[in-house]
Design brief:
This protein has 447 residues and is mainly beta. Among the domains are: 88 residues, no CATH class; 99 residues. Strands 3, 4, 5, 6, 7, 8, 9 and 10 form an eight-stranded parallel beta sheet that branches. Strands 12, 14, 15, 17 and 18 form a five-stranded mixed beta sheet that branches.
């Protein structure tokens, strides 16, 4: 028995012949030292342990352990995919380096996780390198920073970069603010939900919409070529320009001066849809509502209810209001009726006759005669009324609007001219109109 054991031990020793090391280790238990530098198999070779025993391949101390580093082209395979097989790669501070002079492919039939206790970088090898994530044809779900267990800072691009996001539907979700976005181009819908969206300059191009389910806060300009739908408030320190602005929960524009179409010659349409909802202009506090700029450089045509397709009901003011209309007023009712409930006030002036003349530049007025007697069956010397409102085509009406002497009956008449009118007064009564009271003559000009 001792001789057999000795024979096995001797059989496991190194046989050195002309620099070629040949090893045969069989049936040897415990540690065995091989003195040599090269292990070469004459054909396909295999180094393995028993069925359940571990196999360790290592250097004696700090020497490198090389696997498949020869100069010949070869395939180096580590591990297998049988049931629970696993491959563990561990390094210290010397890092792990995987280098390839051509394409590299990492394939897994299950989940794959890259975990680093320090920085993790995915870099291109040179200028113009393309880094692809999820570019296959499988319809993947690609998540970046979605663990929702700790607050992450997710940065995409820098101030020097051009960032393009192409999507049929782009959902930007945030419980806080989203800032620094300059351009969003889409053919679908851009939806911003959460506590608010903040941007320096939001621009939608193509046929896409910009939709916010909450507030939209913009530090500069908003330019829209299609539609902007907001469920909350639009807060902009710059301008809002573009296509259609839609407020699904109502739309309120407030803050500083609000200008609609301030820099172009396009039409401004308010309440022109098919809805039957009211269109209100003006708030509950005291305001000045101006239609047609007070400092305009050219005349405007301001039209209210002139579509002539359906019968409109146009109401201006209420019983509590004072309504003033300055300038020429044309009431063109055709065969219809213009009904005015309440008082109609027109500009009114007064003047006293001197030397058979008086000047009053208003549409209505009261002329006080200078006390000239008008005897029975006589006509007073004509009075010239100078009035810039009167034209030769004007309709001027006059009447006696003061007390008369007993038995006096005055009948006035008027002939309009350009900038004036000639007023005659005849006493057709049986008594004289004397200086006991100055005669009052009222007039009204209609153009």
């Amino acid at each position: 028995m001792q001789n057999t054991k000795l024979a096995r031990t001797q059989l496991a020793r190194t046989i050195m012949t002309s620099g070629l090391s040949f090893f045969l280790i069989a049936g040897v238990a415990g540690a065995t030292t091989i003195d040599g530098t090269t292990l070469t198999f004459g054909a396909a070779g295999s180094i393995s342990s028993t069925t359940s025993s571990a196999l360790t391949l290592d250097s004696g101390s700090t020497g490198a352990v090389n696997l498949g580093t020869g100069a010949a082209a070869k395939t180096v395979t580590v591990g297998n995919n049988t049931t629970t097989s696993a491959v563990a790669i561990t390094s210290g501070t010397g890092d792990v380096t995987v280098t390839s002079t051509d394409d590299s492919a990492w394939t897994t039939t299950d989940d794959a996780t890259f975990t680093a206790t320090d920085d993790l970088a995915l870099l291109g090898g040179s200028a113009g390198s393309i880094i692809n994530v999820g570019t296959n044809a499988h319809g993947n779900v690609i998540n970046v920073g979605t663990d929702n267990t700790a607050a992450d800072t997710v940065n995409i691009g820098s101030a020097l970069d051009a960032l393009t996001i192409a999507s049929s539907a782009f959902n930007l979700s945030s419980s806080g603010a989203v800032s620094g976005v300059t351009t969003l181009g889409t053919s679908g819908i851009i939806t911003a939900v959460g506590g608010g969206t903040t941007a320096a300059n939001w621009t939608t191009t193509g046929s896409g919409d910009l939709v916010s389910a909450d507030d939209l806060t913009v530090g500069d300009d908003v330019t829209i070529t299609d539609a902007l739908g907001v469920g909350g408030n639009i807060n902009a320190t710059g301008s809002i320009a573009g296509g259609q602005i839609v407020g699904t929960g109502g739309l309120t524009i407030s803050g500083g001066a609000i200008n609609l179409n301030v820099s172009s010659n396009n039409s401004i349409l308010i309440g022109t849809g098919t809805t039957t909802s009211a269109v209100n202009i003006g708030g509950t506090a005291a305001q000045s509502i101006i239609i047609g700029a007070a400092s305009a450089t050219a005349g405007k045509t301001i039209t209210i209810g002139s579509d002539n397709s359906f019968a409109d009901t146009i109401t201006i003011g209420s019983a509590l209001d004072s309504t003033s209309v300055l300038g020429n007023v044309v009431l063109a009712a055709a065969t219809n009726t213009v009904t005015i409930n309440g008082n109609v006030s027109m500009e009114k002036g007064t003047g006293t006759v001197a030397s058979d003349a008086v000047t009053i530049n208003t549409m209505t007025g009261v002329i006080t005669d200078d006390g000239t007697d008008i005897n029975a069956d006589a006509t007073r010397t004509a009075i010239t009324l100078t009035n810039s409102r009167i034209a030769t085509t004007s309709v001027v009406t006059v009447s006696i609007c003061g007390a008369l002497d007993a038995n006096a009956s005055l009948v006035p008449s008027v002939v309009p001219g350009s900038g004036s009118a000639t007023i005659s007064i005849r006493n057709v009564g049986g008594g004289n109109q004397t200086t006991n009271g100055a005669t009052k003559i009222c007039f009204r000009v209609t153009n």
